Structures are given as C-alpha cells and as structure tokens.
Amino acid sequence: MTTVHADTARIPVPTQSTYQTRVADYWNAEENPVNLELGKIDDLYHHHYGIGDADRTVLDEPDPGRRRERLTGELHRLEEAQAQLLASHLGQLSPADRVFDAGCGRGGGSVVANLRYGCHADGVTISAKQADFANQQARKRGIDDKVSYHHRNMLDTGFTSGAYAASWNNESTMYVELDLLFAEHARLLRRGGRYVTITGCYNDTYGRASREVSLINAHYICDIHPRSAYFRAMARNRLVPTHVQDLTQAALPYWELRKEADHLVTGIEDTFLTAYRNGSFQYLLIVADRV
Ligand SMILES: C[S@@+](CC[C@H](N)C(=O)[O-])C[C@H]1O[C@@H](n2cnc3c(N)ncnc32)[C@H](O)[C@@H]1O
Q: Ligand 1: does its nearest atom lie under 6 Å from the Cβ of 154?
C-alpha cells in the first residue's frame, strides 16, 4: 500500500527534521565573539577549535586593549593551523577539481582550500544566514566564480554524483547520523577521491559518554559519536581510512589560552579541558579514500 501524506508539498527545503531545524536556529542566532572577532582579522571565518603550541606571552601584555588583540590573534592563528592541517590532507587537487565542504559554517574552510589549490568549492550549511554571509565573503574576495555556499542539508545535497575530488567535515559530524552522512560523501566523491574529518569523539575505552561529553552535547545541541562509530560507518560506505591522528594533546594549548580570554570565552572551556584530560573525549583527524 502506498501512503501519500497530505502535507508532502509543505516539506521545507532543505528537507530537515525538527532537530535539524533547532540546529539551524542555533546557527542562525549565533554571534559569538570567538567566531566573529577572530574571523574579522583576515576575513577567514572558522567555527572550529585550534591546534598546536600557543604563544602564552600574549598574556603578559600590560596594555589591556593590546592584550585582548594579541590573544584574539593567537587563537585565530591556532584555528588557522587546524584548517590548514585538514586542507593539507585533501590530496593532489588541481584548479579544475571540485571539493565539498559539509557543514561549512561561515565558510573559512572552503576559502582555505581554494587559496591552497585554486579548486572549486561547494559549502553546505543548514543555516541560511551562514550561507548568505559566506557568499558575501566570497564575493568580497573575488572568488565567487569558484566558491559557493548553499543552504542545504549535507545528508541530501542534491549535488551531482561523482563530481567531487575531495570532501570534508570540520567539526560538523556530531549533528548527524554517520551512515547517512558517509553515504552522501561516498555518492558525491569520485572513485579515488579523498574524505577528511576533524572531529571531537568520545573515547570507547572510557565506557560511555562522560558527564563532560554530555555537557558539550547540551551546550551545542549535538550528539557526539564514539570513536568506533566513525570506522564502522566508513567501512559500510566505501570510505577506507588511510591516516588517523589523535589531536587531543595538540588541542589543549588552544583551550588553555581561550580560557584566559575574558572577551571571548563562552563558558564551555573548562568542560573541554576536563573531557580531554580525563580521557573521555578525543580530538581526531581521519583521512579516508573513496574506493
Ligand atoms: C561547529 S560548525 C563548523 C563549521 C565549519 N565546518 C568550520 O569549520 O568553520 C557546525 C556546522 O554544521 C552545520 N550543520 C549541522 N547540521 C547540518 C546539516 N544537517 N546539514 C548542513 N549543515 C549542517 C551548521 O550549520 C554549522 O555550520
């Protein structure tokens, strides 16, 4: 029997669940200084965390205004290092290639890929406001002929199958079911294409999600997956890991410094530090080939 719902015609575009609408509401309303003030420095807007050793001498700056400025700059440098690390794993890309930035935020990751490889990029976000903002930035930079952002669901993009040489999720996998996500990446990537993710995941060896992991879920309205779930879902969706890197230790200096930045803190800093230090949470880079 075929059942046709009377309200089929009212399904919103992008197709999304009530949960996804709440996630979109969150990102449409989001104006955190830690995202906006850092981005303003060079118009590279990242909504992810940073990696690498921090220059903590910025904290010794006696002038309060200058101290704030140097702290903001240093956090941005660490976020930029994270974006560059991800981009460095996208494979051999040429200017003719196309990449897919799943859950693209205000667009920094696609700009980084375009500047590095000259490639075309399609960013997708469930937030209409983010997509508009990112497209404005691309126009301002004069790269809008190659880089575009779309208000769509990354689980169901409608883009052409096999059209992409590389794709990634930078801190956006925790909003979706991994099997649905990886099925869409596998569909979009050409054979031999590259998939990369940097993500927080809970550590299976801890047992289940810790109190801190649950607090992070509540803070961002997300659902952090265990590390094991990534590899199972990749194996089921033609994505074969070629490189895995535990970035947990490399992530600590960023959070330790951010905690000191009174003008940028969001209140979740100590929770991240505890989660990383008690072994319940990991910051992971996974690189996979589409076979
Ligand atoms: C933490 S931000 C990361 C943004 C970006 N990747 C970056 O590194 O700057 C999470 C992003 O995932 C997006 N997102 C969450 N669920 C989504 C979905 N189902 N489809 C598309 N985007 C989604 C949000 O709109 C937001 O842009």
A: yes
Total-model pTM: 0.94
Domain total for the chain?
Answer: 1
- Please check whether residue 202 lies inside any domain of the structure: yes
Question: Is the residue at 1 inside a domain?
Answer: no
Q: How far is the CA of 60 from the centre of ligand 1 (A)?
A: 35
Distance in Å, CA 116 to ligand 1 centroid: 22
CATH code assigned at 71: 3.40.50.150
Q: Calculate the alpha carbon distances from 145 to 118, 139, 154 in Å.
A: 11, 8, 22
- Answer yes or no: is 3 within a domain: no
Which atom of ligand 1 is nearest the CA belonging to 48? 8
* Residue 58, in any domain of the structure: yes
pLDDT digits (tens, 9 = 90+) for 193-236: 999 999 999 999 999 999 999 999 999 999 999 999 999 999 99
Domain that holds residue 124: 8-290
Residues 13-72 pLDDT 10s: 566 899 999 999 999 998 888 778 888 888 889 999 999 999 999 999 999 999 999 999
Contact in structure between 290 and 189 (CB atoms under 8 Å): yes
Distance 163 CA to ligand 1 centre (A): 21
Pick from 178, 206, 152, 176: nearest CA to 288: 178
Degrees to nearest 5, angle at CA 143 with 140 and 144: 80
Query: Which atom of ligand 1 is nearest the CA belonging to 169?
Result: 6
Q: DSSP assignment of 58-100, as one string? A: GGG-SSHHHHHHHHHHHHHHHHHHHHHHHHHTS-S--TT-EEE
